Amino acid sequence: MSVRPSEFPPPWSPPEAIAAPTDPVDERIEVGFLIVGAGPAGLAAAIRLGQLLEEHPAMSDRLGDVPVAVLEKGKAPGSHLLSGAVINPRGLQRLFKGRKRVDEMPFYGEVHGESVLFLTKRRALRLPTPPTMVNHRNYVASLSQLGRWLGEEAEALGVTILPETTAGQLVVDGGRVLGVRTGDRGRGRAGEELGNFEPGSDIVARVTILAEGTQGHLTGAALDHFRLRSDNPQVWALGVKEVWKVAKPLHEVVHTMGWPLRGGRKYREFGGSFIYPMGDDMVTVGMVVGLDYRDAELSVHDLLQELKTHPRVRRILDGGERVQWGAKTIPEGGFVALPKKLHAPGLLLCGDGVGFVNVPALKGIHYAIESGRLAAEAAWRTLERGASARDALRSYDESVRESFIWSDLREVRNMRQAFGRGFYAGGALAGAMTATKGRFPPGDLETERDAEQSLIVTDRATSYPAPDGVLTFDKLSSVFASGNRTRDDQPNHIRVQTKVPREVAELWARMCPAHVYEVGEADGDGTVEVKLAPSNCVQCGAITAKGGRLTPPEGGSGPEYTLT
Amino acid sequence: MKIAVCVKAVPDAAAGRRIDPSTKRIDRSVELAISDFDTYAVEEALRLKEAGGDGEVVVVSMGPEKAMDALRKALAMGADRAVLITDPGLEGADLLGTARALAVAIERESADLVLFGQQSADGGGACLWSAVAERLRRPVISQVSELTNDGASVIGKRQTEFGYDTIRAPLPAVIAVSDAINTPRYPSLKGIMGAKKKPQDTLSAADVGGAAAAGTTVIALNPPPARGEARKIEDDGNAAEQIVEFLTEKRLV
Dmax over Cα atoms in chain A, in whole Å? Predict the structure, then answer.
């Protein structure tokens, strides 16, 4: 009998993240515009608002002491940012038009060479680069570093960044979003108030922009509350990556397909790896796998370790040293999974949170930046004389539809779904889609929810390499390399059922790159206990895709990425 | 009562601690954060101020210009002002140089009480407080895990290897608190928002009596040796026996 993780839904419901105001009116913190998430989308919105404020100083009176505030759950902007990343500079160029040149941005350099390899266990076959993947005129960057830089740019424009602060609930009153309630700090394991307990606060704003990134906590709740979800479900991939100091420079960006993933249709293993140079002395290597996979023994972290043992990859890392590790999910549903609307009263949604990712191009950062910029302009329009807030926010949807975000994503709208049919059929379909610029097939292919894939169990795990601490690493030392310093006597922030069939427990234990889940004792009725170590969590979000729900732990918890 | 809290901006734990071989100093070009040990001193100062009903808490530090960003955390917690001594001429100052500069800055403030954390999170010297007290010619109590104040004197309960000493010192005094003294508060959102607007002054070397020639030379500075082979004992019911066996084997018991 095969089970699906979706049969064991988390003890959590979206209304838990929606609340009426808690604090009396005079105790609420009032800001002009409130942005949740200091990533590329949120900081682009903040920077654009800062620019507009600079251009129209008279408006600042109407926005109060804090015209623009950004909440960030990580220690600092960038602490929770992780991506490849090869960045299309288009979004940044439009954001900083006439203010900053590309050579002033924190990039490691332009992409001058690239190869796409099909791997078998020992060999590497060079493939022609698919047109969607050409990276000419794109730049290699660490998204974490880019985030730090964007944060500094935003602060220079008068934006207030509030780090170590989670947005726990969306504050809704009379059908309109007023702002957010921040998470409490200083609670003990059972939720009790510790000596340094600091309760959350209601922060209210003229417009709230959610830019929470993948698996956004409030974004998910808002999509349900305001009935904005697409008829097609969102799906995700999990990426795990490492940053290495290397002995010799790598001169090209490398993408691989094939091994260590299996091509058979029954496995549904869609993904590949990336290897990018970061200047002359660093390289980043990562593995990305769609979370619609079925094998309970699959572990993206261990697949990455296996990948590094390939002669072609090992050669790049030889004599080097791993300096950082991290993991994050990527929304892959594409165009057909986008919400029906990107706004609600008092609210705008942007970036990865709504799924602006072009899967065949492996790009999303420039869409996040562009959507943040457009959200800022729509939010600003609420200040215009005679403008109705409703029309102003609605204009965001219109401008996104007229932007390159929309045309780019529409062109590739069925590609990710095609790979549900296995690697070869998917590849052929994707080719036809590229050739017709998305006109073929005329309809939309169906998306199947990640958690609804029935599980299989193979002996995949027996072939993962044993960690040697030099080239290959176990999960716990990797969590350490993410800089994770989560206080471990705080309430558990991961909602999962803890009595499930062995396959489901095994799936979570293997899937989680941070060793949060362990398969416990069998209960005699065919189920096992799931044991949790929530303080290992790097908040990648995979659990939300595969049957559980990640909620934000205390602000300041989680990884402290600096190079990812 | 006016309380000065001496704090240090140290390389953030996430940024990692690296020794710059050319200067034989810890690399401070990375992101800086206020040393964890110092947040206990800031907390204690805030509690004393709150208990007294009025007064002022001033954080005093010496470091690179960007250390001011780290000091802002103390302001967000509730400190009233920050004073940063920053000058290229003071870079790499040794214990005595640092103590002299801090003492001058503290004297300018005419603080009734000077608080320190037990040690810095990077250098871990645990002696700056005594050097500053010596410079100021004031009594000092270290390792204080309980502090009371009657306006004319302070009573510190200090932990020792053999128990507790309870020591009274007349004000003005210098106190180094241990990390057992309290649980530092989280900065509130209003505190974080207000921190930027609080007074933040910088002092140059000239303001604190000029740059002093170092009286000490660093011969070498090395990272701690890597930990050797570790043996992990899983508790299968007789872990205690195994540990005793291991210690006996190593002639440690």
Answer: 70
What percent of chain B is predicted at pLDDT more than 70? 99
Q: Name the minimum distance, in Å, from the CA of A130 to any CA of chain B.
A: 38
Chain B: give the shortest CA distance to residue A97, in Å. Answer: 29
Rounded average pLDDT over A416-444:
72
Nearest residue of chain A to residue B187 (CA atoms): A198
Sheet holding A517-522, edge to edge: A499-501, A527-532, A517-522
Minimal C-alpha gap between B112 and chain A (Å): 27
- The pLDDT of B74-93, averaged and rounded, is 93
* Res. A422 pLDDT band, cuts 50 70 90: low
Poorest-pLDDT segment among A290-294, A318-322, B49-53, B207-211: B207-211
Element (H, E) at B81: strand B81-85
Q: Read off the pLDDT of residues A319-376 as tens digits, 9 standing for 90 and up.
A: 999 999 999 999 999 999 999 999 999 999 999 999 999 999 999 999 999 999 999 9
Q: Does CATH number 3.40.109.10 belong to domain B2-219? A: no
Closest CA to B55 of B109, B102, B12: B109
State the pTM of this model.
0.92
Phi-psi region of A545 (alpha: psi -120 to 50; beta: other; left: phi over 0): alpha
E strands present in A261-367? 271-278, 282-290, 321-331, 343-344, 347-349
CATH value of A107-140+234-334+452-550 in 3.90.330.10, 3.40.50.150, 1.10.3720.10, 3.30.9.90 = 3.30.9.90
- How is chain B split into domains, by residue range? 2-219
A333 touches chain B (CB under 8 A): no
Torsion angle in degrees (nearest 10) through CA of A415, A419, A421, A422: 150
**Which strand ranges, in their side-by-side order, compose the sheet holding A33-36?**
A160-162, A68-71, A33-36, A207-210, A347-349, A343-344
pLDDT at A483: 93
Q: Is the ipTM of this complex over 0.85?
A: no
A71 touching chain B per CB within 8 A: no
User: Above 90 in pLDDT, residue B116?
Assistant: yes
Break chain A into its structural domains and give their ranges.
17-95+145-186+197-230+338-411, 107-140+234-334+452-550
Q: Does the domain spanning A17-95+145-186+197-230+338-411 belong to CATH 3.50.50.60?
A: yes
